[in-house]
Amino acid sequence: MYKLLHMNDVVRIPPEKFGRSLDEIASEVLRSNYEDVVMREFGIVLAILNVEVKGFGKILPGDGALFYRASFDMLVLMPMIQEVVEGEVVEVNDYGIFVRIGPIDGLVHVSQIMDDYITHDPKRNALIGRESQRIIEKGNLVRARVSTVSLSRGGSTRSKIGMTMRQPFLGSLKWVEADLKKLHGEKVGAVEQAPQGEKK
Amino acid sequence: MLTRFERARVIGARALQISMGAPPIVEVPGRTPLEIATNELNAGVLPMTIRRRLPNGKHQDIPLKWLIKNQPN
Amino acid sequence: MTKRQTAHAEADDAGADVAAAGAKTEKPAKTVVASKRRVKEAASASASAKPNAPKNASPSRAKKPKAAGATGGEAPVPLEPTPDLGLAQGRASKARQPDMPLVDEVLARHDRRLPEMLVSQLKAKLAPLKEKLNEEQMVTVVEETYSSYIKALIEPGEAAGTVAAQSVGEPGTQMTLRTFHYAGVRELNVTLGLPRLIEIVDARRLPSTPTMTIYLDDEHKRDLTKAKDIASNIETVTVENVAKSIGYEMLNNFTIEVDAEMCEDKLIDINYIAKSIEKLKIPGKVSVEGNTITVEPETTDRAKIKRIRERIMDLRLKGLKGIKRVVIEKKGDEYLLRTDGSNLAQVIENVKGIDRRKVYTNNISEIAEVLGIEAARSAIIREAFEVLDQQGLDVDVRHVILIADLMTSTGKIRQIGRHGVSGEKSSVLARAAFEVTVKHLLDAASHGEEDRLEGVTENVIVGQPIPLGTGIVELFMRFSKEGT
Fold it and tell me: Whole-angstrom Cα distance, residue A101 to residue C238?
C-alpha cells in the first residue's frame, strides 16, 4: 500500500553547503537521508516532497552546522499482509516466481502459484500446471495476495515479501478473466495450453 | 552588549563554519578562519541571534546586531 | 538589613571610591590648565589601582553574585536590569539628592543602568566639587564611574556558585591545620575556626557555644553597678549555685545549706528559695531554719528522692533560661554584656535597660525564629565572614553572601548538605552524584522519576556540554534566501 505521510524532523545543514538556497539544501539533505531507506514503522521510502523549512537554524556546540526544523511529505510503500497487488513477473525459477510490485519484488513460491502439480520447464523458463496446463512465464501480468512481510533496515534488497496466488481470482490476469467468464456461465474458450509440439 | 561567553561562542561557531567550508558573508580581511570570524562579528554582518533565558523560564531572542552596538571599545 | 539594602550599601562604597577618584582630579585642575587627558589619567589611575587595593575596589562588583544568588546560584540573570526597578528606586531617593543635571544627562546616555543609590552617592560627592571641576572633567568622572560599574558586573553564565564554593573551601582546608578552638573573650569560650564554619554551613539548631552580646541603653551603659544589676537579672541562678552543702539524711529528708554570701551577691533571699521549691509542688514539706532548708518528701523511695533532689538543684531562681553566665566587658567608655548561652526572645522582650536594636546572638536559627529569615541571612554572612576574617583569610564577602542567599532563599534555613541544598536538588543524577548514589537511583527508578538534564552535574554525568559559560549560550542563525 502506498502512503503519503506528512513528517516533521530536524535537518542538519552542513556549512560546506552554505551559499545556496535553504530549501534546496534541505531537500537535498533529507533525500539523501531518507530515500530508499526502509523504515520498519513506515515502509520503504520512495520520495521526499514539498520540503518546508521553518524558523531559525540552531547552532549546537562542537558543530558548525545549522539545525532547522523542517516538515515534508514522504511517499512510502508499506506492504500489508492480505493486500492484493498486481505486477509483472520478472524472474522465474524452479522454486517460484518474482513479481515486481513497485520498488521491491515479491516471491510467489511454486507451492503458492496454483492448485495443481507444477513443473519447471527450463527451456522456456516457465512454470506449468500439469492438470490445468496453465503457464506462468516472464512478462506475465499477475495478481497476488501478500502473505508475509519482512522489512529489513538493510534496505529494499534485504527485505522480503511473500505472496500467494492460490486463491480464487488470483494468478495470471488471463486466468482470472477466464474464471470470471466461467462464473458467468459463458462458454469456456480455449484455455491457453502448452503448444502441442513441446508436449511429448 | 555581548557577554564574553557569547562573544567566544559566536566567534568559535562561525570560525568552525568557515573552516568547514562556509563562504564568508562579506569581504573581510583575515587569513585564518578565526580572523575572518572575528572581523565578520566586528563588521556586524553575522545573521545570528542569541537566546537569553530568564530564571522565570521566559526567553528573549536578541539579534547579534543589537548586541554588538553597545560594545565598549 | 534586607538583601537589596546590603547590595546597595556595598555598591555605595563603590560609588564613593569612584567619586574619590574624581576628587583626585581636583589637583591637576588647580595647578595646571585642566586638560581632558589629565583628568582621564587621574581617573583611570585610581580605577586601575584596584589590584593594589582589592578591598576597596571589589565592592563595586557587589550587585552580581547577588543576582545569581536570588535564583539559586545557577541560573544567570540577563545583564540589563529591569527598567522599572531603576525608576522606582529613582523616585524614592530623588528627594535627598543634590541637583546635578549634568550627571543625569550623562547617565541618561546609558539608559540609566546604574543603581540609584550609586547615583545619589556620586552626586553627593561631586556637588562640593562643582566649582573646582569644569564641565568636561565632570563628564569624564561620570563616564569613568559608569564604565567601572559596568566592568565590575558579573556576566550571565559565570560560574558564580562554583567560584564561591572554592573561595570558601580552599581557605577552609588551611583552617583545619591551624586551629580548632580559640580562647574567646576573657572567661568565655567561643567556638571559632573550622568547627564554627561547619556549624554555620550545617545550619545546626544549636551552636556548640551559644553566646550573646547585649548593649545597654544610654542610662545604663556608663555605670558599672547598673550594668551589674542587669547582668544579674539575666544570669541564671539555680539552687545548686547558692548551696554551700547538701545534707544527706538516711531517712526521707535532706537539707540544703545556703551560702549566705552568694545569696547576697546574687540578691536572693533564703525564703524566696524555699518558696520557689514549694512551687515545684512536690508532695511533702519544706522548712527554713537559719541558713538551712529542709525538704521532707512524702515518699520513702530512695530513687524517687534522688530525682527530687536533682530537680531542686537545677531549679532556676533567677535569670533567663539558657543563659548560664554573664560577663561584663568594657568597650571604649561603655559597658556591655557577653553571655554564655543564648535566649534572644526573652532578652529582647523582658530585659529592661538594654539597647534592643543592638542585641546580638550567634545562634542563627534563633535569629530566624525571632527576627525572620532576612535577619538570619545577615547573621550567616556576619558569622561566617567573621570566622574567616579572624583567621586572617581574605575571602571576599560576596562569596559568603551568595552562600547565605542559597541557604535562606526558601524562607527557611537550609543546610549545605544532605538535608538541605544538596539533598533537595530536583535532578536525580545531581543528587546521586552527591551522596548515597545507589539509594537515589533506586528510588528514582521505582518512582519513575524524570531528569530534565537542566543542571551542571547532570550534564557532566551524561557527557554533554554544561549550561555554564559558553555552554549556556543558545545560538541561532538565520539563513537568508540568497544564502549566507
Answer: 104
What integer is the mean pLDDT of A24-44? 89
Q: Which of the pair, C91 or C232, is modelled with greater confidence?
A: C232
First-last CA distance in chain A: 44
Contact B42/C at CB under 8 A: no
A residues 35-94 lying closer than 8 A (beta carbon) to B:
56, 59, 61, 63-65
Rounded CA separation C193/C196 (Å): 6
- CATH architecture of the domain with range B4-69: Alpha-Beta Complex (3.90)
Q: Which 8-state DSSP code applies to residue A165?
A: -
Grid coordinates given for A113: 502459484
pTM strictly above 0.80? no
Nearest-5° Cα angle at B31, B25 to B35? 65
Kindly list the structural domains of chain C, giving each domain's residue range(s) and its CATH number in brackets, ordered by start: 3-156 (no CATH), 237-318 (3.30.1360.140), 426-472 (1.10.150.390)
| C313: nearest Cα among C301, C325, C303, C305 | C305
Q: Looking at residue C106, what is its pLDDT?
A: 78
Q: How much is the pLDDT for C245?
A: 75
Give the mutation candidate from A17, A52, A66 for the C interface (greatest C CB count, under 10 A).
Answer: A66
Place of cell 497487488: A85
pLDDT of residue B73: 45
The predicted-structure confidence for C58-80, as pLDDT tens digits, reads as follows: 333 333 333 333 333 333 334 44
Residue B47 in contact with residue B22, Cβ under 8 Å?
no
A111, pLDDT greater than 60: yes
C474 touches chain A (CB under 8 A): yes
B29 touches chain C (CB under 8 A): no
Chain A contact present for C463, CB below 8 A = no
H or E element, residue A127: strand A126-129
Lowest model confidence (mean pLDDT) among C35-44, C359-368, C399-408: C35-44
Q: Which of C11, C68, C281, C46 is nearest to C141 (CA)?
A: C46
Report the pLDDT averaged over residues C352-379.
Answer: 93
A160-164 vs A171-172, strand pairing mode:
unpaired
pLDDT of residue C231 exceeding 70, the answer is yes
Cα-Cα-Cα-Cα dihedral sign, residues C456, C457, C462, C463: positive
Quote the DSSP letter at residue B24: P
The H or E element spanning position B38 is: helix B33-43
- Note whether C478 contacts B8, CB cutoff 8 Å: no
pLDDT over 90 percentage in chain C = 25
Longest dimension (CA), chain B: 43
Sequence-distant (≥ 6) Cβ neighbours of residue C327 within 8 angstroms: C185, C186, C187, C188, C337, C338, C339, C340
Helix (H) or strand (E) holding C88: helix C83-93
Q: Between C271 and A99, whose confidence is greater?
A: A99
User: Which of A105, A75, A110, A111 lies closest to A87, judged by CA?
Assistant: A105
